[in-house]
């Protein structure tokens, strides 16, 4: 049951983290429209492979903080700061009039390799997963056994792939609705991360 919970947590957090229109998912939709759905799925697979490493690095960082008593209190404070910043970031994104636009030039190479490259260049991913794993650890939901970590990482990668698959499948609809979609989803994520920051802060003050 614990393994299933860790898979679900990894899947949901990764799915939600990739939900808002961004470079990677809009690139997935663009490849689907310009080339084919199959090429977009290959791109999504490349992105998801890198997510495996990014989530594992984030867990190692959280585990290091957790196993050092001097950092235990900092762990909770970091969670508050990260989620507050994420909430502000998503709120600012929701206020932008323009939908995210594709800034990366179209490549004619292997879509899987392009997915690998762009996912590596996505600097937002590791800080996001650090915030997620820190918050889950503070809440007592994340257990740092090798099996649980492995399942959480797999769940995270599959959550990203599932969301990108949706962008590939519904590319034409997403293209036509991207402006309103970006605004609404960013606002929802701003509220969710703000709530997480508040809950973690209350937990700190109650100690």
In sequence order, what are the helices and strands, one letter per element? HHHHHHHH
Percent helix: over 70%
Low-pLDDT runs: 98-108
What would you call the structural class? mainly alpha
Strand content: under 5%
Instruction: Give the total of beta strands.
Output: 0
How far do the termini sit from each other? Answer: 30 Å
Number of domains as seen in the coordinates: 1
Discrete helix count: 8
**Overall morphology:** globular
The major pleated sheet works out as: none
Radius of gyration over C-alpha positions, nearest whole angstrom: 17 Å
- The pLDDT mean sits at 81
Tell me the quaternary state.
Answer: single chain
Short summary:
The chain is mostly helical. It has helices at 2-19, 23-34, 37-66, 72-95, 111-120, 125-138, 146-169, 171-205.
Secondary-structure blueprint of this entry?
Elements: H1 2-19, H2 23-34, H3 37-66, H4 72-95, H5 111-120, H6 125-138, H7 146-169, H8 171-205
Structural account:
By secondary structure, the protein is mainly alpha-helical. It has one domain. 81% of the residues lie in helices and 0% in strands. Helix 2 packs antiparallel against helix 3, helix 2 packs antiparallel against helix 8 and helix 3 crosses helix 6. About 5% of the residues have low confidence.
Features:
single chain, 207 residues, mainly alpha, 8 helices, 0% strand, globular
């Amino acid at each position: 049951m614990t393994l299933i919970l860790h898979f679900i947590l990894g899947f949901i957090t990764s799915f939600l983290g990739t939900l808002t229109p961004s470079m990677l998912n809009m690139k997935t939709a663009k490849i689907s429209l310009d080339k084919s759905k199959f090429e977009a799925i290959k791109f999504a697979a490349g992105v998801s492979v890198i997510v495996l490493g990014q989530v594992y690095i984030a867990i190692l960082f959280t585990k290091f903080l957790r196993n050092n008593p001097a950092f235990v209190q900092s762990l909770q404070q970091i969670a508050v700061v990260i989620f507050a910043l994420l909430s502000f970031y998503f709120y600012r994104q929701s206020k932008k009039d323009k939908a995210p636009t594709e800034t990366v030039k179209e490549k004619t190479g292997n879509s899987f390799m392009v997915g690998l490259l762009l996912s590596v260049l996505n600097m937002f991913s590791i800080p996001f997963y650090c915030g997620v794993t820190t918050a889950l650890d503070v809440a007592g939901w994340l257990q740092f056994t090798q099996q649980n970590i492995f399942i959480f990482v797999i769940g995270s990668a599959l959550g990203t792939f599932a969301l990108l698959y949706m962008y590939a499948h519904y590319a034409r609809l997403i293209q036509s609705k991207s402006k309103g979609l970006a605004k609404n989803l960013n606002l929802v994520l701003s509220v969710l991360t703000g709530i997480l920051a508040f809950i973690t802060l209350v937990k700190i003050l109650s100690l």
